Amino acid sequence: MRRITNPKHIYVDQVGTVVDYEGEKHLITDVGGGCFKVVRLRDGYGRNVEIRKILHR
């Protein structure tokens, strides 16, 4: 997996964290702008999700 995250992003330390999103476990694989790239652990489905939807519930 290639990481393209800017190391100066304020949420770069969240990359590699497992979070509960929409009732399922997801892995944060990248961050950029206002979005996290998350991959669902059950089947590997990846998508971009706004940071505020994950961190500010």
TrEMBL record:
This is Uncharacterized protein.
